[in-house]
Amino acid sequence: MPTIATEVLVLFSAILACLIVVRPEITVTRAGKILAFGVLFFLPIFSLAVGMQNEMTRSESTSFCLSCHIMESYGKSLHIDDPSYLAAAHFQNHRVPADEACYTCHSDYAMFGTIKAKLGGLRHLYVYYLGKPPLPQDIKLYKPFNNQVCLHCHLGARSFEEGVVHNADPGTLPAIKANKLSCISSGCHEIVHNVGHWGDVKFWYQKN
Amino acid sequence: MNRRLRISGVLVIIGLVVEAICLLWSRPIAFVVLVVFGGALIGTGVLIFLHSLASVAPDSAHSSPVAPGNRQ
Q1: Could you tell me the residue range of the domain that residue B17 belongs to?
Q2: Given this model, what pLDDT does residue B58 score?
Q3: Residue B32 included in any domain
Q4: Which of A82, A154, A165, B61 has an alpha carbon within 20 to 30 A of A96's alpha carbon?
């Protein structure tokens, strides 16, 4: 449900609840009892559920991730004008949805991938507000990047399956698919965000 | 009963207002505020309402019996 519709639902629920607070005697009648049940039980729980769902959806957006100060340089890295920068190339060419760029590459596509991503987000929030956040260039992945995230889109694609380097050795492609040879850290696509090591790069921004 | 309804209503209203603010506040902390404060306020309000229903029903059943012809 869009945010504006959720806002209307929440405010409508609050206004009805005000009615019960101001005139509780209306609950004497059967219709009043039904109204009270709807206003003080069903609507608040429904509004909360819809609001939480709204926040969960919003938390998948690129702007949400980049709203933390510490992530600013990672957001900037998406605009580097150099195709060897993996994140920038994917973002600028819409190989990932531009409005869900972070979430697309940094959430696991397995059964509980979304839940793991949300729990990870809560941990980041704790560190950001109550802990000692690292410098942007010192942020590391919890574990090596899983090839399955890349293969979610690239598996079966001609450029991947018939790529010269991927087929130079007969063992390369099976090793990539089995997650034994990392796409990122094996030296092939190792330039991802490279925050703190940009040097003299140029930036590209989409013209509106 | 009325007092509990009022308390329940006020908690629900405050919780809903917190939720409304969080929905407009596009920051990661908004989700935590929504769940922790908004959820707690709404949850407490709903529980007080349910408690008021559960605690009043037996009393009214015993203290004010309604004649079969006068049921509303």
Answers
A1: 2-56
A2: 55
A3: yes
A4: A165
**B16 in any annotated domain:** yes
- The answer to whether A130 faces chain B, any CB pair under 8 Å, is no
CA distance B11 to B71: 33
Nearest-CA distance from B11 to chain A in Å? 10
Q: Is residue B38 part of a domain?
A: yes
Tell me if chain B has a CB within 8 Å of the CB of A103: no
Q: B36: distance to nearest CA of chain A, Å? A: 11
Task: For A154-187, give one letter per residue: b (16+ CB within 10 A) or e.
Answer: beeeeebeeeeebeeeeebbeebeeeebbbbeee
The first and second tokens of residue A57, run together, are 């959806």
In DSSP notation, A34-96 reads HHHHIIIIIHHHHHHHHHHHHHHHHTTSHHHHHTSGGGHHHHHHTTBS-TTSHHHHHHHTTSS
pLDDT of residue A42: 96
Tokens of A103: 């979430």
Cα A117 to Cα A123: distance, rounded to the nearest angstrom: 10
Domain count, chain B: 1
Average pLDDT over residues A122-139: 90
Query: Hey, are the CB atoms on B12 and A17 less than 8 Å from each other?
Result: yes
> Residue A122: its pLDDT value, please?
87
The residue assigned the tokens 């330039």 is A191
**For residue range A10-22, what is the model confidence (pLDDT) as tens digits?**
999 999 999 999 9
What single-letter amino acid sits at B19? E
Diameter over CA atoms, chain B = 59
Q: How far is CA A97 from the centre of its chain?
A: 11
Q: Examine the pLDDT at B72 and tell me if it is beyond 50.
A: no
Q: Mean pLDDT throughout A105-113? A: 80
CB A68 within 8 A of CB A189: no
